[in-house]
From TrEMBL:
Keywords, in A-Z order: Coiled coil, Signal
Name of the featured protein: Sporulation and spore germination
Residue ranges of coiled coil: 29-70
Natural source organism: Proteiniclasticum ruminis
Signal peptide: 1-19
Source species, domain of life: Bacteria
Length: 217
């Protein structure tokens, strides 16, 4: 960076000398103008290189601070884990449909929303759900999930008409929702139960009776 600055100073001095000489020797004005133009272009190039070096220097400073903060001399890679998204067979048997990759230190509610997004997409025809909050109730952490009913347009999926009807369909719906959010085999920090609502209201349908109350892990 210092070398670039010295080059710029040298070029400026050259320009000054050329200008002085040009005043004395008008016959060589054309040659001087070409030389001055070349030197000016060189200055622009060097200034650009200097700016790039400054930017690189700042980036290196940031990396050094990150290395110091890690305490180990190496940059810490963020750990990730896979969480399964479940569906169900007609007999209610749980099956893994897909998995979601999350950062281990991601907030728990964020993990829940990621699971809900993928569950709605893969199992429930694109229907959506919102992981609202995790509340402590009687010493247990309960996740609240609100199912968002479909638009009602022709051909659009509906929780009520597509997934809460029939004993078989209802059983499959309960299994997919509860098992995906409860993650019973997960050994890390998790919720103790889940409570579902439909558009903010209690779910009361004959074929999904378990969705009307809190389901514990």
């Amino acid at each position: 960076m210092k070398k670039n600055m010295l080059k710029i100073v040298a070029i400026l001095m050259s320009l000054t000398l050329l200008a002085a000489c040009g005043n004395k020797e008008n016959g060589s004005a054309g040659v001087n103008e070409d030389t001055v133009k070349q030197l000016e272009e060189k200055i622009v190039s060097l200034e650009a290189d200097n700016a790039a070096l400054k930017e690189e220097n700042e980036a290196l400073k940031v990396e050094i601070e990150e290395l110091k903060a890690s305490g180990s001399g190496e940059l810490i890679e963020e750990e990730e884990e896979e969480l399964p998204v479940f569906g169900a067979e007609e007999d209610g048997t749980m099956t893994q449909v897909i998995s979601v990759v999350v950062k281990t230190d991601e907030p728990l509610l964020t993990k829940m929303q990621m699971l809900g997004d993928k569950l709605g997409e893969e199992v429930f025809g694109g229907l959506t759900m919102k992981a609202l909050e995790i509340k402590e109730e009687d010493g247990k952490n309960i996740l609240y999930v609100d199912l968002i009913e479909g638009s009602g347009e022709v051909g659009a999926k509906s929780w009520i008409y597509d997934y809460f009807q029939g004993s078989t369909g209802g059983n499959m719906t309960e299994t997919a929702l509860t098992e995906t959010f409860l993650q019973r085999e997960y050994a890390g920090v998790w919720v103790d139960g889940v409570h579902f609502t439909l558009d903010g209201e209690k779910i009361e349908f004959d074929h999904v009776p378990n969705l009307s109350d809190t389901i514990l892990r």
